[in-house]
Amino acid sequence: MSTSPPDAGFTPTGTIASPVDRRRVVFATVVGTTVEWYDFFIYATAVGLVFGQLFFAPLGANSVLVGFATVGISFLFRPLGAFLAGHFGDKYGRKVVLMWTLILMGAATALIGVLPTYEAIGIAAPILLVLLRILQGLSAGGEWGGAVLMAVEHAPKKRRGAFGASPQIGVPLGLLLASGVMALMATIAPGDAFLKWGWRVPFLLSVVLILVGWYVRRRVEESPVFTELAERKEKAKTPIVQLFAKHGLLVFIAALVFAGNNAVGYMTTGGYIQNYSTNPEGPLALDRTPVLWAVAGSAVTWLLSTLAAGFLSDRIGRRTTYIIGWILQLAGVFLLFPLVNTGDIGLLFLGLAVLTIGLGFTYGPQAALYSELFPASIRFSGVSISYAIGAILGGAFAPTIATWLVQQTGTTTSVTWYLAGMTVIGLIATLLLRDRSGIPLGPDHEAEQAASPIYGVKSPA
Known about the structure:
By secondary structure, the chain is mainly alpha-helical. It is built from 22 helices and no strands.
């Protein structure tokens, strides 16, 4: 491992990386993940606004609840995507997996944009919609791990948090883009026009975005850690088997870290706040367009706090940054619904903005944290599967659970306590992990990387 200062340009394997290479990697991860999450979130936004009427109308009052359940169903397939991506990513490289996940996500999203509604083809419409959502879930399951490792494994040792924040900001950027495009279409095609054709445009736009993402990603070099593994022929033959045989508990704890963030984040990325605040039969019945702009605005604060947390984690460590984030997120959870329930669009934005500060601090350092938890030969499998399981435990059914809680209790207080509980779970999981900021990532240090980062747990044999 090189002892050169962080600005000297050394990758984890000791190879000199030029400033141009660094910028290209960062730009590619930001663009690629933004496109992927735009595609993923545009579905959730549409569920909260129109899919209940267009695809699940015969279910009546339960149409939105079932629509949100389809958001969660896709999460059940994210581990499969993560398993496949992890296996192929640890055997054949990070880059090839990222190219195929981009294509799969874009194709599924564009097809949703041309899908006939229930009125046109009956029960086949929701069935096809769910199948396309499953394809989105498979893609999302494989996307994140590859993007994270491309960013972190190219980074100088003391700047992993900052580099790792580049794929992380793809989430708020994707939410910003999805909400902004939906808001624009709600303005261009208001009322019935939005229901008839306006909602389709954001899905069809995915074709253009995928072409941009493909062009950018194909110009990026393979991860230096994987390149060295390949040259030494030290790639794991069965990375997933090795992962669960030696690091199963670590995968579960890492998943709980993400679950604490993801459950809260899916109040907006999962479309719940959009539906709750705009439902004509709900307590607020706000206009669709200003709510979408408020969500888009909160995506900006989320982006900024995510970047800030990534940089801060390089100075004070991943664990400490996370602890600060959990405290901020808990405060945001308790402020959210009191501000949203005022029915004032400015206060609704304030509630979302405050919440996203904590969300950014519990998401910005995640790329570096996860990358530093697992050995090089099984790292893609480790980060991808931990992330996918955390998504199921956290955000998969968070909008559905929130909708059900309000139906059963008649108040959003129950949702607040649910989100607070998930935040505390994330905090406890974080406290169980040692801080491994700066640990060498290259294949020369597999023994050090394999040492258990869990307090009180011995290293696997």
